[in-house]
From TrEMBL:
It comes from the Archaea. It comes from Candidatus Syntropharchaeum butanivorans. GO terms for biological process: Mo-molybdopterin cofactor biosynthetic process. Pfam families: MoaE (PF02391). This is Molybdopterin biosynthesis MoaE. InterPro entries: MoaE_sf (IPR036563), Mopterin_biosynth_MoaE (IPR003448). The lineage of its organism: Archaea, Methanobacteriati, Methanobacteriota, Stenosarchaea group, Methanomicrobia.
Length: 118
C-alpha cells in the first residue's frame, strides 16, 4: 500500500468525510528546462506548508489537509508536491484544493529557480 493510499484510508475513517481530492504537481519539461531548485530551508518550508494547511482546515466543511512538498533540486518528471484534502462536500473540498495549490505557488514557489540548458 502506498503512502497516499494510507493517508486516504485514514481520512475515510472519519464519518464527516464525504469527499477526498488529491493533487500531485510534477516538474514540467518545458523547452530548455532541466530541473528546478527550491531554495527554502526545510524549517521554513515546513512552517509555510503548516500555515497553509492550518488555514484551510479552519474552513467550513474541511476535515483535514495534508501537504507534502519536496525541496532541493528536482529533475523533469520528479514530484514537487502532493496535496490531500478531505471534507464534507465536493464543492468545499475542490475549492480548498485549488486554493492550496495557489497558496503554495505564492508562498513556496517564490523560492523556485529554473535550471535551464545553456
Amino acid at each position: 500500500m502506498s503512502e497516499l493510499e494510507r493517508l486516504i484510508g485514514s481520512m475515510k475513517g472519519d464519518r464527516r468525510v464525504g469527499g477526498i481530492a488529491t493533487f500531485t504537481g510534477i516538474v514540467r519539461g518545458d523547452p530548455g528546462v532541466l530541473a528546478v531548485e527550491f531554495e527554502l530551508s526545510d524549517e521554513m518550508l515546513d512552517e509555510r506548508l503548516k500555515k497553509i494547511a492550518d488555514g484551510l482546515k479552519g474552513r467550513d466543511g474541511i476535515v483535514d489537509v495534508l501537504i507534502h512538498h519536496n525541496a532541493g533540486r528536482l529533475e523533469v518528471g520528479d514530484e514537487i508536491t502532493r496535496i490531500v484534502v478531505a471534507g464534507s462536500h465536493r464543492e468545499q473540498v475542490l475549492s480548498a484544493l485549488r486554493d492550496a495549490v495557489d497558496l503554495i505557488k505564492q508562498e513556496v514557489h517564490e523560492s523556485m529557480k529554473e535550471i535551464r540548458v545553456e
